[in-house]
Inverse folding.
């Protein structure tokens, strides 16, 4: 059984159709990338998968659960790192990780997890005193604290410097090697090309292509040489959607 299966998802906000008949299959244990420009419907899609929004139409199953009806059970098995992390700003990193650990029956060791995301030196810092990159690492730790079977990471490495970005990529690969299914929403071509087993390209609320990164490059008929793989990937994106992926640091 796939980890995530969506069929014919639709979601409108007033006159805006955010998700327009979307189909998606994420296999257990893979890193699945969702790529699309701003407004393509990525956040709405992952919010539906996470049980945070109810679709107007369509079917979705996540780890065998209906995300909307079985939200409480889903919380125990699906980790979610979204753009905005709502936490108590006066609490310290270690306090926040411990608090979130207490929401789960089973979970990670707080100090090991803090180490894993590279926050050991900041474990006693209050959230409000963390840099943007540190807040980002903390939000990833909070998504992983319940030892989820699947995790949604939205803009994993936004705000991180190149070294921290590479560390985070290594962490994601480790998670996959441990059997965790990962959905990665990204604007970063390099990240998607390096990490993802499959990538779905979203455009106007639909999946316009899904393939292995190399397959997308090939299908778009773009050149592929080692030096320019990210550019080739970018060209493939353009060929499929008719638009550029604007910038690497969205919003
Ligand atoms: P992405 O994550 O790819 O940027 P979103 O799912 O955030 O895409 O948005 C898809 C479309 O839905 C956009 O046109 C956006 O402006 C609109 N939209 C998203 N959230 C809301 C909302 N809460 N109310 C009204 N429109 C929304």
């Amino acid at each position: 059984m796939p980890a995530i299966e969506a069929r014919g998802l639709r979601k409108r906000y007033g006159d805006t159709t955010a998700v327009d008949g979307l189909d998606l299959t994420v296999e257990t244990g893979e890193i699945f990338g969702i790529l699309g420009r701003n407004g393509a419907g990525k956040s709405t899609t992952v919010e539906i998968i996470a049980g945070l929004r109810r679709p107007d139409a369509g079917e979705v199953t996540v780890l065998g659960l209906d995300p909307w009806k079985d939200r409480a059970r889903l919380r125990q098995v699906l980790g979610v790192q979204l753009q905005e992390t709502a936490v108590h700003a006066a609490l310290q990193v270690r306090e926040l990780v411990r608090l979130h650990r207490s929401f789960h029956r089973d979970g990670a060791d707080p100090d090991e997890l803090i180490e894993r995301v590279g926050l050991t030196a900041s474990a006693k810092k209050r959230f409000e005193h963390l840099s943007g990159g540190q807040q980002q690492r903390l939000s990833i730790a909070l998504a992983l604290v319940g030892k989820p079977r699947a995790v949604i990471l939205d803009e994993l490495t936004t705000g991180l410097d190149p070294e921290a970005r590479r560390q985070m990529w290594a962490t994601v690969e480790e998670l996959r090697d441990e059997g965790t299914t990962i959905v990665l929403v990204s604007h970063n071509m390099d990240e998607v090309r390096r990490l993802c087993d499959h990538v779905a390209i979203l455009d106007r609320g639909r999946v316009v292509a899904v393939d292995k990164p190399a397959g997308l490059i090939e299908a778009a008929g773009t050149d592929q040489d080692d030096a320019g793989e990210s550019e080739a990937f970018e060209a493939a994106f353009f060929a499929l959607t008719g638009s550029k992926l604007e910038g690497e640091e969205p919003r």
